[in-house]
Amino acid sequence: MIIDGIRVTSLSRTLIDVAATSSFLVGVTMIDHVLHCEAARMAAAQRSGSVGAPPITHATLLTELDGVQPRNGHRAAERAIAFADGLSANPGESLGRVRFEELGFEIPELQVRFDVGGRTCYVDYFWRGVRKIGEFDGHIKYTRAAVMAGRDTVQVVVDEKDRESVLRPEVNSFDRWGWKLALSPQAFYRFLMDKGVPRAPTRRDR
Fold first, then answer.
1. Domains of the chain
2. Residues 79-133 pLDDT 10s
3. Helix count (H) and strand count (E) of the chain?
4. What is the pTM assigned to this prediction?
5. C-alpha to C-alpha distance for 64 and 155, rounded to whole angstroms
6. Residue 105 has what DSSP assignment?
7. Residue 104: left (phi > 0), alpha (psi -120 to 50), or beta?
8. Closest of 80, 77, 87 to residue 39, by C-alpha
9. How does pLDDT run across 149-178, given as a tens digit for each residue?
């Protein structure tokens, strides 16, 4: 396709190219983000009654992959597409899921809803079998205006602590981590083992 006189690939094709030529982490993070944005776009279109372009989904990406048939990286792209999940709300959450997979831990449920204390909370990760909540604690919620919703940093921290206090009695454990820890496979493995994150019953076929 041509945009402003420049030949470019479609978003679906670009995702295939990235997933086929990059690491599993990069491929999953890119696809997670697009699936998440596409779900939000379709929800907004439904609310407004508008009709836009069909959404990019796992199925459309697999169709694109079959059409492209990359000489190298077909299996890598297929694996990234299968693992991607639009419920991952940001790159930090995608990083956590990839690390769980790579390090042999059980993949948790995402964005699980808790109705407690007169409020509704969604958590990043939930291991239902051991009733454990995990949260990726990036810096965006403390620094980005759109996420802070008019609150100052102190209020954001207070709100997060209040939210955690409400959720903790509902589960057996609640743990947080950030970029530095998750970016180190060795350190993150030790952390997850120490915190009792369940191991995957069997490793996926590589």
1. 1-86 (no CATH), 90-200 (3.40.960)
2. 999 999 999 999 999 999 999 999 999 999 999 999 998 889 999 999 999 999 9
3. 10, 6
4. 0.86
5. 45
6. B
7. left
8. 87
9. 555 666 677 778 888 989 999 999 999 999
